[in-house]
Amino acid sequence: MAGITVRRRTAERRGPYVARAVAELRSWPALVVSDTRRGTVVAVRGTEILRLTGAAEVQVRLTAPAIDRLGPYLRDCDQVHACADRAWVAVQVDAEPDLELLLALTSVAIKAHVPAET
Questions:
Q1: I need a labelling partner for 70 at 20 to 30 A (CA). Which of 62, 79, 88, 94 fits?
Q2: CA 105 remoteness from chain centre
Q3: What are the residue boundaries of the Luciferase domain, all occurrences included (predicted)?
Q4: Which residues contact 30 (CB under 8 A, 6 or more apart)?
Q5: Can you give the pTM of this predicted structure?
């Protein structure tokens, strides 16, 4: 008889600032925070806008036009890096200012994915 392997899902390891960001974002009414097999994701109106990709790294879906507009500022920021998909950037969240930057970029992502009300 073949052995059966049981895998226990271990808790996702998050750095303290990423954990604080997730706790904060759970209170934002426009967002849905879900714990999936791939990890924690944040969506607005059904569109994934944040992915927790490491203990201290979060990918943010800003859209290519928003990244182009913010490009000069993002290029000067050591904590932000381009992703293979041009609509996303990776943010390294190691300190309080990084947390504030992540929350600000999350606001940009929400605005980019929610149509303006007329």
A1: 94
A2: 9
A3: 46-109
A4: 44, 45, 110, 114
A5: 0.85
pLDDT in tens, 85-114: 999 999 999 999 999 999 999 999 999 998
Based on DSSP, count helices (H) and strands (E) in the chain, helices before strands: 3, 6
pLDDT tens per residue, range 15-34? 999 999 999 999 999 999 99
For the chain, the average pLDDT equals 89
Angle between helices 64-75 and 96-113 in degrees, nearest 10: 160
What is the number of other CB atoms lying within 10 angstroms of the CB of residue 17? 21
Pairing status of strand 57-61 against strand 80-82? unpaired
Q: Where are the domains of the chain?
A: 16-111
Per the CB < 8 A criterion, the answer to whether 38 and 49 are in contact is no
